[in-house]
Specification:
Layout lengths: L2 H12 L2 H4 L21 E8 L3 H17 L5 E8 L8 H9 L15 E6 L12 H14 L3 E6 L18 E4 L2 H17 L8 E6 H5 L2 H11 L9 H7 L2 E8 L2 E4 L5 E3 L6 H7 L3 E7 L7 H20 L6 E7 L11 E3 L6 H9 L3 H4 L13 E3 L17 H15 L1
Parallel strand pairs: 1-2, 1-3, 3-4, 4-5, 5-13, 6-7, 6-10, 10-11, 11-12
Antiparallel strand pairs: 7-8, 8-9
Length: 416
């Protein structure tokens, strides 16, 4: 892509910015038919990340080199671009870097097409600042799709969190979504919603949060938008609404310190036996939500996770019979076996075998259909969610209208 072409599409896209936020209607998946299918031997890997650029590029290069040694591909090119701390991308630099991957102005140099893997954390797609990039992706993916390229889109952000424009996914052969955290918390919130019903009468509800979720602004970014759905009028804020309906939020910081999640009051030199804490447990429903952002080898985070889970286990015994229902939801957990009722969620799993199938299959739209397990604009959308006989997280998007309405309202509040 030349600089002239970059400025051309940027100028054209500016005309659409005013209408972009209200863009709702989405086209049918796979809006164009691919050229005659050929098994590609040339791989073009583009990585967008907010992590260490060198490490991410090296990791992608290692994967591609392995695929080449296995004979899945003959050649590969890897390019990586990083976002800023605010997840902003320099669109000019971005376009020039992509031009170093595939020369879109001279596709005649690619008579046999190829395979593009576009791998992104997705944080840049959830920000209105970068909204124009999705128009670039649509133009690029459509061009490559019609030239016989096959495209895999790997994303670490749930499709529902994309800022507005997502029709570029209609030109993708397979979308692999690795955002399990969004699936986790939406299922937790929807379970709470179903317990109380659509009337939003959150009577005698306590939500317990681990320190890790508190520090990730779970209260302001996720819980408050949920409670905002039930506000009786525009004058009442979600925190006031919670207080009016006897809803409590308690943060476990450590064994002798808790925080009232609504008022911000710090409760020091207390434990689960203290009178100040007991009122949070003597409720109709207690929902405990925890998360471990560390790895299996992160001693400090795993120790904090242990303390949190020990507190929940002990509280279940201390206050048994003094609450009607108590449930623990835990995102990621490494260090020990749990001897208490818990709904667990683990992060994404390795997808190398799916990449191998994507590159070696004859017809992606037919041969990859086995991986389609999630609702999405792409015909084949794969959520890296482990399944089992006791699975509790599910695709709310394809459920009844009530679930879809709940999610739509939740994400609308989260964006506002």
């Amino acid at each position: 892509m030349t600089k002239k072409r970059i400025f051309t599409w940027l100028a054209a896209l500016v005309l659409f910015v005013s209408a972009m936020i209200s863009f709702v209607a989405l086209p049918k998946k796979n809006v164009a038919s691919a050229a005659e299918a050929q098994v590609p031997k040339d791989l073009y890997y583009f990585r967008v990340t907010n992590l260490s650029l060198d490490e991410e590029e090296a990791e992608a290069d290692t994967l591609c080199a392995s695929l080449k040694r296995m004979g899945v591909i003959n050649s590969y090119v890897v390019k990586a671009v990083s976002t800023t701390d605010n997840n902003i991308i320099d669109l000019i630099a971005y376009g020039e870097l992509f031009d170093g991957l595939i020369d879109l102005d001279h596709l005649e140099n690619y008579p046999n097409g190829g395979a593009l893997i576009y791998d992104t954390d997705g944080t840049e797609l959830s920000s209105g600042v970068n909204a124009m990039i999705t128009y670039y992706l649509e133009e690029t993916f459509e061009t490559l799709h019609n030239h016989g390229f096959r495209i895999m889109f790997i994303c670490g952000t749930d499709e529902y969190n994309f800022y507005a424009h997502k029709t570029f996914l209609g030109y993708v052969d397979i979308h692999i979504n690795k955002d399990i955290y969004t699936t986790f918390y939406t299922n937790v919130l929807y379970a709470i919603y179903l317990f109380y019903g659509s009337s939003f009468e959150w009577s005698k509800l306590t939500i317990l949060l681990s320190e890790s979720l508190y520090k990730s602004e779970f209260i302001s970014k996720i819980l408050m938008p949920m409670f905002s759905q039930g506000l009786p009028d525009s004058e009442t804020g979600p925190r006031d609404y919670c207080a009016m309906n006897n809803v409590k939020i308690l943060v476990y910081y450590n064994d002798t310190m808790f925080i009232d999640g609504l008022t911000g009051e710090i409760l020091q030199n207390v434990n689960i036996y203290s009178n100040e804490i007991s009122e949070y447990f003597e409720r109709q429903k207690v929902v405990a939500i925890g998360a471990n952002w560390g790895s299996a080898y992160d001693v400090e985070l795993n120790a904090a996770d242990d303390h949190w889970l020990n507190m929940i286990s002990e509280a279940m015994g201390v206050y048994e019979g003094r609450y009607e229902d108590m449930t623990l939801y835990q995102y990621e957990h490494y260090p020990k076996t749990l001897y208490l009722p818990v709904y667990l969620a683990n992060g994404p799993y390795d997808i190398t075998y799916i990449i191998e199938d994507f590159l070696s299959c004859e017809d992606p739209q037919q041969d990859l259909m086995q991986y389609d397990n999630w609702t999405g604009l792409c015909e084949i959308t794969h959520k890296t969610l482990k399944s089992g006989p006791n699975g509790w997280m599910y695709d709310i998007y394809c459920g009844d209208g009530e679930g879809l309405s709940f999610l739509g309202a939740l994400f609308e509040e989260m964006r506002s």
